[in-house]
């Protein structure tokens, strides 16, 4: 436990503190020190891709990206799977927690980090496409960081079957996703108990049974997510638009508050500017998952005509997650009178805000949308796990099925009780994934940049 706690503190704790005016300080964790500079570097190297190529991201989303009709999933389907994982409880409660701790100004820094992170998402998704392999079990393709890390450290004709760093990444991912499964189970059972007074044992049992029916079938996951993710995201988006229109008169004051608190003298003088910046930055980084190596596991499965196209789709996924879904949660919170939410946190705070806007329907809506967000995340992470299980244990159904059963058990346990150690285990897993992924991402980035240049030179000019 002492070793585990030490690793947790190295990854997530503030290892550098920069003094700021007013007695505040800017605490920087190892992951922030890795991801933010890397995101800025990739943004410059891609010639500010998030701004320059945004119209192209939309065009690629709307076109038919499947190269053949027989192999793999489409580029948009890979985007849907990664969006299912990005859009989870963090987009609801996590954003509310960031605003509670860092104020409205956290929202601005969340947006900034999303713009930076989308370049990182482009690089890792494009590399996943470049180094993908045929998938003999599920059909189509597989890949992700474990595979491009392998190509970085193991020469083509080497007898070695595994790279140490790739193995560490794959193990970190499987540990992380087991931890997340427990968190998902707990989140869903808690929200249903609060909204409908349903005992956790019943909501958890139904959840696990539905999940088992889907994940234990060969290729049902993508089909379910194809229907589920667009519906849940659209419902949440349109409900938020309704709330915004209903409170349109308050919008100028809300945006004034966001920008004032992001740079405001009150926060500097009061010693809170560090909390404003870091809460927004951390929420942006770990909500959109850019750099963690999760989304490339889905990106590699896409059957698409050019690697850079999948990179553009995954870069758009960061925008969808942070600039759309997270901003929806922020607006729900900021359009609620502060007197009503004072002293509340987590689901209680969010449900109170929704009750203010929509009455009892708001409480029910949040419980249902949290169920959908969390359940889709569970399906998505088991899709991610496929390629990592194959890399570690080879192509066999036994190892694939055993990992799925383990995740289902963790989902059930989480629904009945919250174990802080398992929550922290998930955090350590995603932190280690990020470290191992970034070891390969920077040296391999020229390959992705070459693919981007080729796409701009040959693919875009054909139109």
Walkthrough of the structure:
There is one protein chain. The chain has 463 residues and is mainly alpha-helical. Helix content is 77%, strand content 3%. The protein contains 21 helices and four strands. The strands form two sheets. The protein has a two-stranded antiparallel sheet with strand order 1-2. Strands 3-4 form a two-stranded antiparallel ribbon. The longest helix has 40 residues, at 420-459. It is globular, with a radius of gyration of 21 Å. The termini are far apart.
Keywords:
two-stranded antiparallel sheet, 4 strands, mainly alpha, 463 residues
Q: Structural class of the helices, strands and pairings?
A: mainly alpha
The radius of gyration computed from the alpha-carbon positions, rounded to a whole number of angstroms, is 21 Å
Approximate shape: globular
Largest sheet: 2 strands, antiparallel
Number of helices: 21
Return the string of H and E elements.
HEEHHHHHHEEHHHHHHHHHHHHHH
Mean pLDDT: 82
Strand content: under 5%
Distance between the termini: 58 Å
The strands making up the biggest β-sheet line up spatially as 1-2
| Low-confidence segments | 267-272
Total beta strand runs: 4
Helix content: over 70%
